[in-house]
Write a structure and sequence with these properties.
By secondary structure, the protein is mostly beta strands. It folds into four domains: 1-171 and 238-320, no CATH class; 178-237, OB fold (Dihydrolipoamide Acetyltransferase, E2P); 325-400, OB fold (Dihydrolipoamide Acetyltransferase, E2P) (Beta Barrel), CATH 2.40.50; 406-477, Beta Barrel (OB fold (Dihydrolipoamide Acetyltransferase, E2P)), CATH 2.40.50.140. It is built from two helices and 38 strands. It has helices at residues 3-9, 445-451; strands at residues 34-45, 48-50, 53-56, 61-64, 67-68, 79-86, 92-100, 104-112, 117-120, 123-126, 132-133, 150-157, 163-170, 177-182, 184-187, 192-195, 198-201, 206-208, 220-229, 232-240, 255-267, 270-273, 276-287, 299-305, 312-319, 325-335, 340-343, 346-349, 355-358, 377-384, 392-400, 406-416, 419-422, 425-428, 434-436, 442-443, 457-466, 469-477. Strands 26, 27, 28, 29, 30, 31, 32, 33, 34, 35, 36, 37 and 38 form a 13-stranded mixed sheet that branches. Strands 1, 2, 3, 4, 5, 6, 7, 21, 22, 23, 24 and 25 form a twelve-stranded mixed sheet that branches. The protein has a five-stranded mixed barrel with strand order 8-9-10-13-12. Strand 26 (325-335) and strand 27 (340-343) form a beta hairpin. The two termini are 37 Å apart.
């Protein structure tokens, strides 16, 4: 194992860097009553749902941002690590410990709404379809933030050290600053180092966990402080995030569940997921793809035992594809028995990996399909499944306050100017429809239709005037990650 891999293994002990698995129905879940460490973004409550497993948390201890806490301190999209046991159904378990931590907390210094990116305390943050925005952000979107806002970001790190956000929440003035990353450009004379674009001064800081009380280049650390001087974070504490033997199982069982981005890739039998070295065997089961699909920054879920060298031997690798389909409108019907609902005439399937969040005024913490009603206004994001079916497998389902407009985003399935079909929904355009190209430039209708082709990603907003027919106010040509 490389020094870099050894350093990054320690990130798994924090919980924000690794995400657990258990998805896909628990087909390769640990044996009945076996110990498990499952790290991942929270998909729902009642108690805590992580990576397809419903963990009962009664009696569990909670640590949130390195301080004692409780379940009320967590929200959907926050990344946690859960130690406990999983039952023989692979979908339920009991947590003994829940640990939550963010990836970065600090001021926003740059925003790019078109690219969906921001910079927080010198760390690049990428938002996408998997990002939840707290309702204390106007519009619950990136557009509700401005430079200077203080935010807390939960998510996964990619191979370049950028954060792929799973949740962003605004914080109050005076909140602490916390940054995680690999130490670079260590200057022991001036007691400084760099975490990506942020310079950190550790003069006078408490050092925790460093051998010989000495920081080294390549260490994965958490730096905390409250102030900047000339753009330099004045750290009050710097902690080495080292490996935690408790994460590698009990009594030699060494079972782990990890979801995250592939941060290093040599081959299908030699890669890292969120910094944890992973290998596969001829018996490894692949879901939603094959070994040929594996690549740097691909989001995957791996599960299996950890061997004596600290390498996870994957029994299953599940490729997580977020999908580019988005529907926003009223719920037409619900079938809780088979886990489906219909929105805009599209049948939507939810499963144990669907992230549920109530952004409406009702603000129900334990929101789920069972709490949804016909006529509720929802936003659903996901991917067509099975391919060619016209049905949607929901990655996220949010209930929102009622609105008169509907939205569809997806691939163009038919063109008949002045109208088009988006994911099977007819979008009618007229003289009052506003069009924009892929760079958010306003264009004429003729220009738009000259740019768009079947298969392109398009977003349309407007009024639902008939079953699966929208009269569009706005039609936009989108990028693949919008």
């Amino acid at each position: 194992m490389t020094i870099r891999a050894l350093k990054l293994v320690g990130v798994g002990a924090v919980g924000f860097f690794l995400t657990g698995c258990g998805g896909g129905g628990g087909s390769a879940a640990p044996a009945a009553g076996s110990s498990v460490v499952s790290s991942g973004a929270i998909t729902g409550f009642g108690s805590v749902h992580v990576n397809g497993i419903h963990f009962e948390t009664t009696g569990a201890s909670f640590t949130v941002d390195d301080a004692p806490g409780g379940q009320d301190d967590l929200a959907v999209g926050d990344v946690v690590k859960i130690r406990g046991r999983v039952n023989d159904d692979g979908r339920t378990g009991t947590a003994t410990e829940v640990i939550g931590d963010d990836a970065v907390e600090g001021p926003v210094t740059a925003l790019d709404l078109l690219a969906g990116t921001l910079v927080v305390a010198g760390q690049s943050v990428i938002t996408d379809a998997d990002t939840s925005f707290d309702d204390n952000i106007p519009g619950s979107s990136l557009a509700g933030l401005v430079v200077g806002d203080l935010v807390e970001v939960a998510g996964f790190f990619d191979a370049a050290g950028a954060v792929r956000a799973t949740r962003i929440e605004k914080k109050t003035v005076g909140s602490k600053i916390e940054v995680h990353g690999l130490v670079a450009d260590l200057d022991t004379v001036n007691q400084r180092f760099r975490l990506n674009a942020l310079t950190v001064s550790y003069a006078g800081a408490v050092l925790d966990g460093f051998p010989g009380n000495q920081i080294s280049d390549g260490d994965f650390v958490e730096a905390k402080g409250t102030t900047f001087v000339a753009g330099v974070l004045q750290a009050t504490k710097v902690e080495l995030e080292g490996p935690d033997a408790a994460d590698d199982g009990e009594d030699g069982e060494a079972k782990r569940e990890i979801e995250g981005l592939i941060t290093r890739f040599v081959s299908a039998t030699d890669f890292d997921v969120a910094g944890r070295p992973v290998t596969t065997t001829p018996g490894t089961v692949y879901e939603n793809g094959t070994a040929a699909d594996l690549a740097v920054n691909l989001k995957v879920e791996v599960e299996g035992p950890v061997d004596a060298a600290g390498i996870l031997v994957a029994r299953k690798v599940s490729i997580r594809r977020s999908g580019n389909v988005r529907l926003t409108s009223l719920v037409d019907s619900i079938n809780t028995g088979n886990g489906t609902l219909v929105v805009l005439g599209i049948t939507i399937k939810v499963d144990e990996l669907t992230r549920f969040e109530d952004q409406s005024d009702a603000d129900v913490e334990s929101f789920s399909l069972a709490g949804l009603q016909v006529g509720d206004y929802v936003e659903v994001r996901g991917a067509e499944s099975p391919a060619g079916s016209g049905q949607l497998l929901a990655r996220r389902l949010e209930r929102e306050d009622a609105d008169s407009r509907s939205l569809v985003q997806g691939p163009v399935t038919n063109l008949a100017e002045p109208d088009l079909e988006v994911f099977g929904i007819t979008v009618q355009t007229g003289v009052d429809t506003e069009f924009s190209d892929g760079s958010e430039n306003d264009v004429a209708a003729g220009t738009f239709f000259s740019l768009v082709a079947v298969g392109d990603l398009v977003k349309a907003r407007g009024s639902l005037i008939a079953d699966q027919v929208i009269q569009a106010d706005e039609v936009e040509l989108e990028g693949e990650d919008d």
